[in-house]
Amino acid sequence: MPQRYTVLSAHDEIAHEIEIRRSRFLCVLRRVQTEEQARDLVAQLRRRHHDARHHCSAFVLGPDRAVQRSNDDGEPSGTAGAPMLEALTQHRGRGTRAADAEPPADLSDVCAVVVRWFGGTLLGAGGLVRAYSQAVAETLATAPLCTRARRRHVSLAVSPGFAGKLENELRTSGIAMLGTDYGAAEALVRAAVEDRDDAVEHLRAVVAEVTSGTGRLRDDGTGWVDLG
């Protein structure tokens, strides 16, 4: 199982439209985590743009991109959904990882829907493949991306007076913050660090220094987090 992959950093829809020989192709991207969410997007756009002839789709799910689906929605077989899916799986982003000489083609948890209004001129199989691929590729070029990584989640129980300083120290160290819950007696600072024992020990040392040894660290197991 990969330990990191690329996702859309925005949870709102990202839309872009192109026109080819009077046919309009509106591509909408959305970050999704399940097949149900992907199919919901298709259904929403079908209702929103009920006057369009086709609502073609493709989506990729999971850290290992194990789930890949596409649908031509009435276009000739293989001319819409398949090129859309290829545009998603081959997209390399704009360098979401500093250590990579070339950004990886590992985009996932994304659904693309291309809504087509027929312009009266047949594009042919090759023209349709190029149009649907172009619509997705151009939309992806405008999409904000981030890295999603598996991290060790921890909770740090500290006096409320130490919470702000601890948050600042952790952010300065490049540790992902998940939020802080304030109670009357203590604050629970939630963070995510690399899944290594030395990273956790470093965090423990930071907490001890900031709180004069009064802070407590709880290991909450591993999970996924957006790194920005």
Tell me about this structure.
The protein is α+β, with helices and mostly antiparallel strands and 228 residues long. It is 31% helix and 36% strand. It is built from five helices and ten strands. Strands 1, 7, 8, 9 and 10 form a five-stranded antiparallel beta sheet that branches. It has a five-stranded antiparallel beta sheet with strand order 2-3-6-4-5, with helices on both faces. A hairpin with a 2-residue loop joins strand 2 and strand 3. Helix 2 runs parallel beside helix 3 (124-142). The longest helix has 19 residues, at 124-142. The chain is elongated and about 75 Å long. The protein starts with a strand and ends with a strand. The mean pLDDT is 92.
Provide key terms for this protein.
single chain; 228 residues; alpha+beta; 5-stranded antiparallel beta sheet; 5 helices; 10 strands
Task: Map the helices and strands.
Blueprint: E1 4-8, E2 14-20, E3 23-31, H1 35-48, E4 54-61, E5 67-71, H2 81-90, E6 110-117, H3 124-142, E7 145-158, H4 160-172, E8 176-182, E9 187-193, H5 197-210, E10 216-226
Antiparallel strand pairs: 1-7, 2-3, 3-6, 4-5, 4-6, 7-9, 7-10, 8-9
Helix pairs in contact: 2-3, 4-5
